[in-house]
Specification:
With about 280 residues, this protein is α/β, with parallel strands linked by helices. Helices cover about 35% and strands about 15% of the residues. α3 packs antiparallel against α4 and α4 packs across α5. The radius of gyration is 21 Å and the shape is globular.
Amino acid sequence: HQEGDGSTRRRAVPHHPQLTSARLTIVGTGIRFGAQTTPEATATIERADEVLYLVADGPTALWVESLNSSARSLIGIYERGRSEGAPRSEIYDAMVDEILATLRRVDHLCVVFYGHPGVFVSPSHDAIERARAEGFEAHMLPGISAEDCLFADLGIDPGEQGCQSYEATRFITHPRAVDTSTPLILWQIGAIGRPATVEGPPPRRMIEILVSSLRRFYPTDHQVTVYEASPYVINPPTIRTVRLDALPDIEIEILSTLLVPASTAADPDPAMISRIEEAAAS
């Protein structure tokens, strides 16, 4: 996954005043560990009493362990749940249970997630809510996300045309108006309609469903880009641009993100422009 696996399940947790000096800090490695990990996150990993982590690959895990000898992975909870066929909500709850159990016996716990710890990572949000509900200090440090990499690698400036960003399955299953004058980002197109534990390329029919959904707004020959951020400095990102109707013909991975550029221009509002000019001149 580029960040988490797209789960948006959240549960309400009551908030109580802080009752203890122990604290939880959740950080991200950035997409390229080390190179994109902020100095603040690195220092937090190094200084914590204990470190838990869930990252995307072995080198990142070794790097986290090199920063703090107490570091241990949460991957065993994920793998055990997957082998037992547990719903991903139960797997995430088990991770949060382990985070809270560890927090209760240390002064400072750091939990490390891949990428930005708040993007497609529901356990991070749930852990903070539960920690605060128990009276612990808990906060999150931002990390460099796949979206940040996409903006840089594809030359997208959301300040110019704006930006729409949706998880791909939810975009299809929860229809909404699309502004075709603004770039559209669809995350995890390789995981459309599939459980988080499913690996490998998606069935062609899933991409065909995505194309059918997009054709309500864009012409079939509209150029779209399949993007995958590179987790390693020595490797370039994957960037493939094709016609919308050719999208099912190319290889899609679980990590793939789709950028759909604007196909129309936004019309200015002369009346509002005049109001702004008059206000500026007064």
